[in-house]
Each structure stands twice: as structure tokens, then as C-alpha cells.
Design a protein that fits this description.
two-stranded antiparallel ribbon, Alpha-Beta Plaits, extended, 3 domains, 4-stranded antiparallel β-sheet, 345 residues, alpha+beta
């Protein structure tokens, strides 16, 4: 009985009531640490619409690219939108975002600090998991224990141990699976890469009429001599070995997506207009036709998979430099229909 009376007395005290009314959470609990992984934050003006974040996201419907409305002064901005209901806060989108400053941030742990970056003197070797067949010949050839190891069914090079001897590259049986990356002249390499990719896109665009009606079982081939590209590259960088290495890296790995548009098949159902994430497909009321703007297109294949009448075509182009030489090299281009699912006719 006395304990009950004591609790009632404590509850009735004015000081207790005042403390209860103005109670505050400890600041140390409220403030999140710098490395806390919160939901990703998006800075739209930094986005280059590369799609790396959507490709890396492991959570369905957690992130998608959208495009704002055009204005009289400028075209709309493409940027990612995070769905917090689907997001698992893994931070992959922030890690793969290539912009500087980043379009997506998710905590200090996703910022690369210069003081922790170890840079080799001239060249570093990496394993391209896309091409690697896990034969482990590079591991057996490596003279430094622990420089190449297997983790999560992937072959990895430890850059802090690697001595850049190149034995892994010499022993690898798959062209391009082991890559020697020159860390000098990085900006020049980027410029040459853009030069080559843009030239290949223009060459393919010129063949659009031949590609549009390409059947699922057919392959379209064309060649692109590289003499003019080599001369342009040499005006940017005076290092033929590095230029050739750049050409080979592009042709080994590059895969271009191509979207074609056959207006004659269109029934104006507006499904593609409603589903296009970038606003590249619009209905023109004056001409009573649905049009696609290639400059706004992200080549995401949504229209191809949505349209039940086959208006949109979706193709993939791959490349091979043969022979691997700057003097007489030719880039072989192979184009075939994508194997993605498509709406039934």
C-alpha cells in the first residue's frame, strides 16, 4: 500500500510533470554517424542519364530514371528517383554513380578519399568478370602470392600486392578477360573513347533502314576502317600503344543498344507514350501521330517490350578489331535482334 502511495506522490510532483513535458532525446542518439547508410539522396542537376544506378540496383522497383518536362528555354532533365518502399539502402547506386560530384549520395562510405587511393606508376591489371571463364591460369602464373585470388566465384586482383608484371595477361586464354589499364593520360583516353563510340554510333545510324526490318534469325554485318579514327586519336595522344589498347578495350567490351521506329505499324494506342520514362515518345495532335525523339531516348527497351504492334525495334551491336593494329585495322560490326521479351501481336 505504501509503495502505491509513493508512486502517486511522485507522479503528482510538479517538477516531474515539468520534466516530462519538456523531455528531449539525447543529441548523441539523434545525430547519425557520418558513415550511416540512409536512403539515397538525389541531386538531379548532376545526372548524365547513364543508367548505371538502375543497372546496379538489386531491389525491384527501388529506382528508376525519369525525365522532367521541357520548357521554352531548355530540354527536360533526366535523373533517378528513389522509391523508399523498395529501397534496401545497400548503397550500390551511389557506389556506381560516375559523376563528380555524385548524383546519388548515401553516406560518407560511398565517397572515395584521395588519401586512401593507391595509384600504380604506369599500368594496373584488372579482371573483367564479364569475360573471365574462371580457368585460374592467371592465378597459377602470378609470381606474387595473394596478388590474384578467388572471392565469391570471381577472380580478383589485389592492387596493393600486384607488381604489374603482366604474367596474368600473357597466360589468360580469353582475349580481354585480363586488362592492363594505363593510369596515365586518363583524360586523353576518355576523349578517344568518346570519339570512337560516337563514330560507331553514327555509322550504325546510317544503316538504320537496313536494320529496322532485320528478323530475329538474321545478323547484319558491316565494317568500319579505322584510319581516320587513328589520325584523330593521334592528335589527342602521342602514344600508339595506348591508342591501340584503347581501341581493343572498346571493341572487346562495348555493346550498343539500337532502337528503331516503324510508324506504319503504329495503331496509336498510347501505351508507349505512357510508359516511356524519359518523355522521348510523344503524341503529336496536329499530325495525329506518335513520334519518338532519338535525342531524348535512353534506349531502355520499355517501348519495345510494351508495344503490341512491333512499332519499336530493339537491336544489339557488338564489335571486333581485326587485325589488332592501327595501320590496317578494321572494326567488324555485328548487329542482331535483341532477345528481350516483347508484347504479342
Amino acid at each position: 500500500m505504501s509503495s502505491v502511495i509513493w508512486y502517486l506522490y511522485e507522479f503528482a510532483r510538479k517538477s516531474w510533470a515539468e520534466n516530462f513535458a519538456v523531455a528531449k532525446t539525447n543529441a548523441e542518439i539523434v545525430e547519425a554517424p557520418d558513415r550511416f547508410r540512409d536512403f539515397p539522396q538525389v541531386i538531379p542537376e548532376n545526372c548524365i542519364a547513364c543508367g548505371a544506378c538502375t543497372a546496379a540496383c538489386p531491389a525491384p522497383q527501388a529506382i528508376k530514371l525519369v525525365r522532367s518536362e521541357d520548357t521554352a528555354d531548355a530540354e527536360g532533365q533526366t535523373y533517378p528517383v528513389i522509391n523508399n518502399r523498395g529501397c534496401i539502402r545497400c548503397g550500390f547506386c551511389a557506389e556506381v554513380c560516375p559523376t563528380d560530384p555524385k548524383t546519388i549520395t548515401c553516406g560518407e562510405n560511398h565517397l572515395i578519399r584521395e588519401e586512401f587511393t593507391i595509384v600504380p606508376t604506369e599500368i594496373m591489371y584488372v579482371i573483367d568478370d564479364y569475360l573471365c571463364i574462371r580457368c585460374k591460369k592467371c592465378m597459377n602464373a602470378c609470381p606474387v602470392y595473394g596478388a590474384i585470388y578467388e572471392a565469391d566465384n570471381k577472380i580478383v586482383v589485389d592492387q596493393s600486392v600486384c607488381i604489374s608484371c603482366g604474367e596474368c595477361l600473357n597466360k589468360c586464354p580469353v582475349k580481354g578477360a585480363v586488362k592492363g589499364i594505363y593510369i596515365s593520360n586518363v583524360q586523353e583516353q576518355k576523349t578517344i573513347i568518346n570519339l570512337i563510340v560516337n563514330a560507331l554510333e553514327e555509322r550504325i545510324e546510317a544503316e538504320r533502314d537496313n536494320i529496322t526490318h532485320l528478323s530475329d534469325t538474321k545478323i547484319y554485318k558491316l565494317d568500319y576502317p579505322i584510319e581516320d579514327l587513328v589520325e584523330s586519336a593521334r592528335s589527342i595522344l602521342a602514344n600508339d600503344d595506348l591508342i591501340l589498347d584503347t581501341f581493343q578495350k572498346i571493341t572487346d567490351r562495348l555493346k550498343l543498344r539500337i532502337v528503331t521506329w516503324d510508324e506504319e505499324k503504329c495503331k496509336k494506342c498510347h501505351l508507349c507514350v505512357n510508359e516511356c520514362p524519359s518523355g522521348a515518345i510523344k503524341y503529336d495532335e496536329e499530325e495525329d501521330v506518335i513520334k519518338r525523339n532519338p535525342k531524348k531516348c535512353l534506349r531502355c527497351s520499355t517501348c519495345y517490350q510494351t508495344c503490341p504492334f512491333g512499332v519499336a525495334g530493339f537491336f544489339v551491336a557488338r564489335f571486333l578489331l581485326d587485325p589488332p593494329s592501327l595501320e590496317d585495322g578494321v572494326i567488324h560490326i555485328t548487329i542482331k535482334a535483341s532477345q528481350l521479351p516483347v508484347g504479342a501481336d
